[in-house]
């Protein structure tokens, strides 16, 4: 644990620097290494002016290597308070809050203190919002702000340290833990941890039955809404941030708010969205061929080729994959990005969702296709296909001793039934460990290494050119702090979607293939435990402090989850049917499959899935969630209060209870008045005369009794009673 | 059209009576033929007192045969207005209205006049609501009100006449027509007509592709919400009426309103709901066997039996069905009712929904099972089964001339491929016509017949016993009116669910089997046209005026629609696959089916269905409905107004637009103040000193420029520019 300790105390020689952020809200990393001096100066002046114009105070310090660090804080607390209050009012206008903020700003802020996340989010918005919406309009690396490398908040190292310590010492997160994460890192990042906290108990049950995944997805949907209500962010996705890159075609009047809004034709967008189909097909074809070829080579080498160097040659496909896959993926991701930009979304949320769906396609192919190939091509059709794998002999020709080694046996080849399990174990254990190392340890080590290299380089360069080190100007009181900020400026930006992607891919392995290796669940249980702490460490140490955005849902990932859990109902059934015996399929001849039986099994499994889904949804919809209940109660109280204010207490009670209790009773005098009126008018209309024949209930009763007495079958019943 | 005319002018000899309702809101039909005189009198007195206690005025007149007619109206208009206002406030409290009603009752009623439906609904509630909720607590035929046969409003014959005339003269209903129906008969009944109005265009397209049904169901869901918003009843199902029959186990505090509510354990209810499973199984078994036996007999007689009376004997199964089916159905419906009562629902809505789902099961079996048997048993397996139908020879033994006629041929039997089409035509055309006659013409004729019979009987009885006719006391001015009311009292109660059931069953034929006979759609087009007018006629003439309940959805029927449309994707695929050649299946031997092919076809079809459903839902969710938009705009306006009232115009604008426009700018003086303060305090904290190193943007800019000048790679870029 010594190394862990050093992780959350990045460098002890910074001393006191870790204990204070000097009240800094944000730091802008201003880099001008590739800009001319004049341009850098002009842009810098514009930047500072823009910041001051929106009420932000600035301090500038030297950065590393042609960089400035611009420290930002809100100039006056009063201004911040107004901003917070404005945001809360907006929430209420959009229906995110049910209770209107108190009319008195001071009172409101006293009742609901400003959280750190709220402050940081609003300051970030002040810096980045377009000018016409009241922000400084600064978007890193785009438009006129080419020198703005990044805008980041400073880590609260004391909190981080305590937080990591706390996380490593407990297994489950409770709602206080989550609330703390929320108040520090914002709802959008926190929801990842909630997802972990809720997914863990599911993985706890070492079962591979897909019904669990289904229940999980539905349960999460409910939980999500509940959390959103608890955090007061339900419906926050309605208040969307306009993408600065959005290009509008025309303007229109918003039918709701009456404000002018920018519009882009949805049909044009749809036409562009349709490009996703060729994109998906190309990705499937390109990645699929690469995977299939490597798969073929691997099978050939491991199961056909008997020649020398076999032990090394089996790694050949891995090498091919390692070389080509990242290249192909980066090209395809580039395509995806361009496609998403082309789709020209108005809001960051929809842009992100569109990107996520494209990335999901790529992930799906790379993560699951190899196992699909083994399960549904190699095992059933192996005996037919493997003899034709001679074509891959090319890859090992230089090593072969004779021609015979390069020819697949035409008969008698037996498929390797352990291949599938081996592959699942590889993807769910080995790959996860490798991934964890790549994600946490490697960046940490490499960062330290490169920092050292840089230091040496800078020193040498300075000695050579004679310019002073950027740290030379540092005030001794701030030196340690500035060193820390310079280090944080070099960290990468935290992207919560990466972590989500990992979770979803894992969920996919579990729901699609855990039937092959029941221990998958256990392996993920361990993995998730580590992953959660790893992600926390990543946020705390490996990346810049994320902007605490709000979110009320995991958004586009929910669809991926649903898709994977549905798909699991099909693959699980197919796998169970195909490998129900010794893993060799029915009759020992794996390629002789009863298609009707297979289809029927899948058909059944899927319909049980759909049925259970319906049932679970219904059942969950009947259970009242505490969050929604709270929301309804609040809404009720607000409206009741409004009524009380405008109608007076008693009247409001009456109106609300819907009773007649407060209504006046009809008295004879009312009727007499009516009668008098009709008399005054002469004999009244036929309607009036009709209603005056019996005045008051006494007359009605008397006449009615009379009618009954006449018509009732008196004796029969009376005498019966007497008997 | 002469007969139609006579239909909407029920009896011309009533003369002026059709033009006035004497301001009567409701009539209570009080029957005491089976009660003792004393009990009848006591109950009558209690009834009148209860009515007067809630502010209702009454008049009593003689009814037919030991009956009283109690006429009810609201005693004072002021009381009605208070009641209407109270209901509107309640709507607002529950979120049905977005705009709070004006604080001044008079102003509110002037802005939104009371519709007839609103008035009638509220008066009905006054009569029937439990006493603790401020009503008179009168529930017909239950509890202490055994003599209260029915509570009904009087028809507005002038409106009815004009309405029927208008309906018969146009093909499509526009939104004004629907609004008029709504204001007269309430949203719950009107939604039936909307369903007709929207379903008709669908049936217009003579296509059998199930995608249409799917689109229809999704489109209707959207349309429904829109209508609800337009009518101002969205979410009205939240304000539910407590069933007087509901038995509670304990009381609890409502977490939303804080009022005391009655609770029944949901687990107990669930346990009782599970009884639906054996109920459905029993129903399927009992009805299924009856249908299967009749089906077998029919096949045997029509296709095996060559003996005498064959032309008559083929009707034998129909006779059996006609005799036993209604009996069985009524027993099963009785069971369903008892089961639903046992489930002990709190609200009428949930009670109705539970009943509907049970009735749907019965309907599903009786309507579709015969066709399923032909399509999926008779045609594929006919050659195997028919030779074993000898068992049914028992039914024709008395008529057979020799034993040979009773033996099925062991070989060479050919199934009749036209049977399926014939059956579909029977169910979709013949049965509909028969049904229409049973529903509209027969009750009309029989009612007139029995009325005559009754008149004759009454006259004879009176002559015999010497008692006066109940009409003897009638005031001449009211005589015609009272005759009319006595007639209306004898009409049955309109049940909108019956009409919905017919529609849904029709929709089922269309979505499940229209592939067999493409003209199904056309036949339903005609049928629906007539049915819509028939239903209108039924409401206007055949039944008592319905209580204008509100509703925001067709509720439980929506699930049935979805189920049928999904099922259609399966049956259509199966039917297309089985009858893709000459209707005899592949290879001419219909029983030699490629199961895998069949399953694959169904699998594909269903997944296309599910995929299209997802797509359609997404697409429709993106199209903003005018109703929801209106709702959002209203909500926005309300909140904005509230802000304006409490904060003043300008501040509200600023707060709403989320801009900083109104925020104060940071001035040097603010900073100087801060500096002065820190000076006063000594040298301030390190944080204060950090932020005081550069005071104001001018200093920041100057220092920053200095840093840039030092660090920038000046010459390289400058010179490049110069080149």
From TrEMBL, chains A, B:
Gene Ontology molecular-function annotations: chloride channel activity
Subcellular location: Membrane
Anoctamin transmembrane domain residues: 198-634
Source species, domain of life: Eukaryota
UniProt keyword annotations, A-Z: Membrane, Transmembrane, Transmembrane helix
TM region(s), chain numbering: 190-217, 279-301, 313-339, 359-379, 424-445, 507-530
Topology in membrane: Multi-pass membrane protein
Domain Anoctamin alpha-beta plait residues, every copy: 23-148
An annotated GO cellular component: membrane
Signal peptide (residue range): none
Pfam families associated with the record: Anoctamin (PF04547), Anoctamin_N (PF20877)
UniProt cross-references to InterPro entries, sorted A to Z: Anoctamin, Anoctamin_N_fung, Anoctamin_TM
Name this protein carries in UniProt: Uncharacterized protein
Lineage: Eukaryota, Fungi, Dikarya, Ascomycota, Pezizomycotina
């Amino acid at each position: 644990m010594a190394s862990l300790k050093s992780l959350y105390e990045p460098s002890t020689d910074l001393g006191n620097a870790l204990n204070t952020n000097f009240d800094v809200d944000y730091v802008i990393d201003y880099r001008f290494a590739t800009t001319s001096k004049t341009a850098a100066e002009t842009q810098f002046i514009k930047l500072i002016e823009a910041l001051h114009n929106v009420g932000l105070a600035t301090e500038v310090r030297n950065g590393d290597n042609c960089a400035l660090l611009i420290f930002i804080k809100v100039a006056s607390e009063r201004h911040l308070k107004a901003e917070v209050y404005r945001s809360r009012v907006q929430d209420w206008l959009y229906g995110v809050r049910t209770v209107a903020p108190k009319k008195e700003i001071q009172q409101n802020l006293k009742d609901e203190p400003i959280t750190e996340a709220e402050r940081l989010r609003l300051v970030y918005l002040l810096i980045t919002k377009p000018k016409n919406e009241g922000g400084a309009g600064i978007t890193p690396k785009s438009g006129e702000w080419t020198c703005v490398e990044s805008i980041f908040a400073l880590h609260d190292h004391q909190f981080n340290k305590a937080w990591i310590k706390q996380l490593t010492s407990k297994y489950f997160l409770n709602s206080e833990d989550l609330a703390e994460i929320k108040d520090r890192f914002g709802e959008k990042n926190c929801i990842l941890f909630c997802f972990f906290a809720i997914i863990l108990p599911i993985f706890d049950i070492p079962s591979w039955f897909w019904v669990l995944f289904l229940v999980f997805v539905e349960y999460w949907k409910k939980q999500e809404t509940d959390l959103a209500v608890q955090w007061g962010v339900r419906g926050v996705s309605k208040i969307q941030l306009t993408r600065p890159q959005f290009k509008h075609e025309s303007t229109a009047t918003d039918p709701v708010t009456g404000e002018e809004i920018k519009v882009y034709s949805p049909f044009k967008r749809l036409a562009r969205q349709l490009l996703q189909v060729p994109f998906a097909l190309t990705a499937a074809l390109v990645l699929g061929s690469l995977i299939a070829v490597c798969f073929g080579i691997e099978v050939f080498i491991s199961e056909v080729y008997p020649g020398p160097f076999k032990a090394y040659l089996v790694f050949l496909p891995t090498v091919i994959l390692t070389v080509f896959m990242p290249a192909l993926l980066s090209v395809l991701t580039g395509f995806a990005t361009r496609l998403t930009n082309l789709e020209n979304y108005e809001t960051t949320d929809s842009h992100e969702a569109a990107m996520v769906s494209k990335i999901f396609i790529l992930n799906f192919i790379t993560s699951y296709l190899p196992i699909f190939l083994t399960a549904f091509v190699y095992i059933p059709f192996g005996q037919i296909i493997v003899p034709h794998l001679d074509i891959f002999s090319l890859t090992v020709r230089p090593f072969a001793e004779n021609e015979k080694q390069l020819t697949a046996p035409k008969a008698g080849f037996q498929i390797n039934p352990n291949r599938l399990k081996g592959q699942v174990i590889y993807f769910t254990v080995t790959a996860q460990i490798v991934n964890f190392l790549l994600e946490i340890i490697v960046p940490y080590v490499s960062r330290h290494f490169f920092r050292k290299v840089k230091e040496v380089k800078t020193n040498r360069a300075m000695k050579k050119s004679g310019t002073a080190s950027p740290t030379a100007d540092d005030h001794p009181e701030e030196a340690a702090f500035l060193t820390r900020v310079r280090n944080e400026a070099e960290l990468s930006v935290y992207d919560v979607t990466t972590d989500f992607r990992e979770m979803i891919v894992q969920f996919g392995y579990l729901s699609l293939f855990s039937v092959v290796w029941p221990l998958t669940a256990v392996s993920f249980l361990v993995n998730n435990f580590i992953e959660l702490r790893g992600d926390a460490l990543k946020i705390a140490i490996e990346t810049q402090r994320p902007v605490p955005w709000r979110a009320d849902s995991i958004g586009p990932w929910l669809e991926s989850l649903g898709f994977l859990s549905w798909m699991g109902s099909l693959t699980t059934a197919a796998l169970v049917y195909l490998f129900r015996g010794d893993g060799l399929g029915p009759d020992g001849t794996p390629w002789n499959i009863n298609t009707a039986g297979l289809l029927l099994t899948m058909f059944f499994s899927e319909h049980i899935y759909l049925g259970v889904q319906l049932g679970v949804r219904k059942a969950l919809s009947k259970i009242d969630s505490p969050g929604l209940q709270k929301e309804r109660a609040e809404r009720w109280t607000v409206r009741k209060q409004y009524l009380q204010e405008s109608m007076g207490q008693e009247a409001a009670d009456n109106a609300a209870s819907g009773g007649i209790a407060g209504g006046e009773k009809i008295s004879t005098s009312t009727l007499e008045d009516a009668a008098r009126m009709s008399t005054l008018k002469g004999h009244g209309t036929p309607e009036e005369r009709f209603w005056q024949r019996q005045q008051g209930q006494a007359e009605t009763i008397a006449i009615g009794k009379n009618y009954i007495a006449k018509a009732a079958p008196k004796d029969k019943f009376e005498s019966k009673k007497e008997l």
